[in-house]
Structure formats: C-alpha cells, structure tokens
Design brief:
Strand content: 25-35%
Number of helices: 9
Helix content: 25-40%
Number of domains: 2
Distance between the termini: 65 Å
Number of strands: 17
CATH class of the largest domain: Alpha Beta
CATH architecture of the largest domain: 3-Layer(aba) Sandwich
Structural class: alpha/beta
CATH topology of the largest domain: Rossmann fold
Radius of gyration: 29 Å
Length: 324
C-alpha cells in the first residue's frame, strides 16, 4: 500500500489556479509543515478551551467570528487561549476577509512556528476553493505505459508490451472518429468517488509514435475533435500475443479488474494475431461496457438463459420417463 500523498504549506502560497490570494503574515518557519488531508476546519469552540473535536494537521480558518471573539479577550487571555490551541499541532492558520490579525495571534504563530496567512476572500469562498486545491494536490497519481482512447464516450486504456500494436490500433480508432487522450505515457490520478482519470503527458500530448513514420501530431492531422485533454478510465484492455497453448475467456461471465492507483477498473485480456480487426473488437468492447453501465451483462444473461434451457430440457425428459 502506498503512503499518503502530502504537500508543503508553502504550496498554498504558490497557487495560481484556484485563486486563493494568500499572503504570508507571520510564521515563515512553518511553511515546511505538510498537509495530508483536504479537510478544512474553523476552530470555533476550540478557542474557548473545548478542543475535543479539533483535528490536528488541518488548515485552520479564522473568519470574522473567530477574530471578533479574540478581540473581546484581554491580550494575556488571548495568548493563553492561542498557546493552548497551537499545542494541538495544527497545519497553518488563514485569516479571511483581509481582517487584521490580533498581535497575540501573530506572536503565537511566530512562537509556535506556525504559518499565518491572510486572504481577502470570504470564509465560505476560501474554504470551497482551498478544498478544491487540496483535493487535486493530494490525489494519488502515477504513470502508465499505454494508450488511452475515448471510444463512444468510454475511456479505454490499452495496455500491452512494446511493439504489440497499441498505437496502430489507436490510429485506426482515430480514423473511425474516436478521440485520442494519450499515447505512450498516460498520467493517471484518482479522484473522489473512486474514479481514476487519465491524461496525456504535457511533453508529448496529442502526439503518437508510429513505427516507420515516426512522431505524428494527431491534433494537427485530424483536428481538435480527434483529441481530448483527459478522460475517466472505465475499461482496461490488455493486449497479449496469441498463444495457442493458453486458455482465453470465451464467455466473459466472470468480471476481472485491474488496480490503478487504488481504484478497481474492469479488465479484459484480448489476444492479438494477424487477421483480427482489433479496432472493431475495441469498439464492440466499448458498446458492451455501455450496456453494463445500463445494467445489461450480455454474457451473464446468455448463461442464465442457457442454464434455464438445460434445466427445462432435463425436466421434460424426467416427466416423459414418468409418463412411460
């Protein structure tokens, strides 16, 4: 099992995509602390001494309520409250609405080596945006050697050893109107709700290597409609060289899965040999996966009908013998 992904507190200040608008006020020595959870907390009752539900290692948001409460206390009491609070090993403190933090808060953060930041955003807006930032930053990521295609809206990841024909199959699918997501290197990331998404590596995005032709740009050759930036991976097709000694699944009754960054994705192992139209097989696999999403499992339904037919035939034979 892989260890949880973490980021440094300094990454919050470096954000350019989620408009957190953070500036450092004090506690620069706390920028090296790490975050491992996207959950945010407002200290609330913890300022009064009730710290039972205070979670360590989380971003603590001080809004108008928290700052107003601190200002009702004497400076000595503020220092006592904040010292007790910061003994809980928090991640960092963010003051919203561009409120001026009390001097006791600044000094407590410096003493505890806890980063104190400020943002002009309202607490509700900041919490929503920083959670989105953390969910993306903390998601489990990896890279796979394969090809990711969007076929009839189904994200299909093609795996197989080098030279088995993944890129040629993908090119055939593009010629049929399907869309390339990534070739050769597929960057995958787990999202919430147990979904895994794949995207092309930025260095080679929209490019494909075809032996004998070299590197080609699918977007330039076929237009923007032939590519997409990312896609949820809903089916993995592992290509194997045809081996007459090996038994292949001929019914498809039992579902198989491949673990990708902690998410079980449906897996099909498909043998490759001359004469097999792999693009057509993959199109059928995509259509079959769409049927499964709608609750229709063709192989299982066929097996059930077959079993019923066998059972009914056996029953008729039994009844016939009894009549005789």
């Amino acid at each position: 099992m892989s260890s949880p992904r973490t980021i440094r507190i300094s990454a919050l200040l470096e954000d350019r995509d989620f408009d957190l608008q953070l500036t450092l006020v004090a506690g620069d020595k706390g920028l090296g602390r790490t975050l491992a959870s996207p959950r945010i907390q407002k200290p609330g009752l913890a300022l009064t001494g009730f710290t039972e539900h205070l979670h360590p290692h989380r971003v603590q948001v001080f809004g108008n309520t928290e700052i107003s409460y601190l200002r009702t206390l004497s400076e000595a009491v503020q220092q006592e409250v904040l010292t007790r609070l910061f003994n809980e090993d928090l991640a960092c403190v963010v003051v919203t609405k561009d409120l001026e933090p009390p001097q006791a808060l600044v000094e407590a953060c410096e003493t505890s080596k806890l980063a104190l930041m400020r943002t002009p955003l309202l607490s509700s807006v900041f919490i929503q945006q920083v959670q989105a930032f953390l969910e993306q930053a903390l998601t489990e990521r990896s890279s796979l050697h394969g090809v990711l295609m969007d076929v009839f809206g189904v994200g299909i990841l093609l795996l197989g050893k080098s030279g088995i024909g993944k890129s040629e199959i993908a090119l055939d699918l593009v010629m049929r109107g399907h869309r390339l997501v990534a070739d050769d290197i597929v960057d995958v990331a787990r999202r919430k709700a147990g979904a895994v998404y794949g995207a092309g590596n930025p260095v080679i995005q929209h490019h494909m290597e075809i032996r004998g032709l070299g590197i080609i740009n699918i977007k330039d050759l076929f237009g923007v409609a032939a590519v997409r930036e990312q896609k949820k991976i809903e089916l993995v097709i592992e290509l194997h060289e045809w081996d007459p000694e090996q038994e292949y699944d001929r019914l498809g009754v039992e579902d198989r899965f491949l673990d990708i960054v902690g998410v079980n994705v449906p897996l099909s192992v498909v043998p490759v040999r001359p004469g097999r139209n792999m693009a057509t097989i993959i199109e059928v696999a995509a259509r079959n996966q769409l049927l499964k999403h709608q609750g229709h499992h063709s192989a299982r339904e066929f097996a059930e009908r077959l079993n019923r037919s066998i059972a009914e035939g056996a029953m008729r034979r039994t009844l016939g013998e009894e009549v005789e």
